[in-house]
């Protein structure tokens, strides 16, 4: 959400602008979003739940502010021409929503596995 919605707002990510990168202190570059991580890189991402919740809440607040400031005409604004067809704000928001739903499903699956042990 942070990466994609900050792009819509044309502003820096909460990760860096509010120094969550420093608070987490991960052994990864500041610009790393986790995309394409190896198993070892994933294993290096360890943080207390309070830190994760704090970052989530900060990103959620940014997203709410950005979405509240959009009007229907903004949805057709092109924000990424690297794709064919180019990506609009509306398409990017749908991508964020579907990615988030997929991750919620993954988390529910892992929770279910842990509860069956």
Describe the structure.
This protein has 117 residues and is mostly helical. It has 2 domains: 1-69, Up-down Bundle (Four Helix Bundle (Hemerythrin (Met), subunit A)), CATH 1.20.120; 78-117. The chain is 60% helix and 4% strand. A two-stranded antiparallel sheet has the order 1-2. Helix 1 (2-9) packs parallel to helix 5. It is globular, with a radius of gyration of 16 Å.
CATH fold category name of the largest domain: Four Helix Bundle (Hemerythrin (Met), subunit A)
End-to-end separation in angstroms reads 32 Å
Please indicate the percent range of residues in DSSP E strands (runs of 2 or more). Answer: under 5%
Radius of gyration, in Å, reads: 16 Å
Number of domains: 2
Q: What attributes characterize this protein structure?
A:
mainly alpha, 117 residues, 2 domains, 6 helices, Four Helix Bundle (Hemerythrin (Met), subunit A), two-stranded antiparallel sheet
What's this, in brief?
The chain is mainly α. The protein has two domains: 1-69, dinb family like domain (Four Helix Bundle (Hemerythrin (Met), subunit A)), CATH 1.20.120; 78-117.
Chain-wise SSE layout:
Layout: H1 2-9, H2 14-17, H3 20-24, H4 39-43, H5 49-68, E1 78-80, E2 87-88, H6 89-116
Antiparallel strand pairs: 1-2
């Amino acid at each position: 959400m942070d990466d994609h919605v900050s792009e819509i707002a044309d502003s820096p990510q909460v990760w860096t602008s509010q120094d969550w990168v420093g608070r987490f202190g991960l052994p990864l570059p500041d610009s790393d979003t986790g995309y394409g991580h190896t198993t070892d890189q994933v294993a290096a991402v360890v943080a207390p739940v309070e830190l994760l919740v704090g970052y989530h809440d900060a990103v959620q607040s940014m997203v709410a502010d950005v979405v509240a400031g959009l009007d229907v005409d903004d949805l057709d604004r092109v924000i990424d021409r690297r794709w064919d067809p180019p990506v609009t704000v509306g398409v990017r928001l749908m991508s964020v929503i579907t990615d988030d739903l997929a991750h919620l499903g993954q988390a529910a699956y892992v929770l279910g596995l842990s509860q069956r042990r």
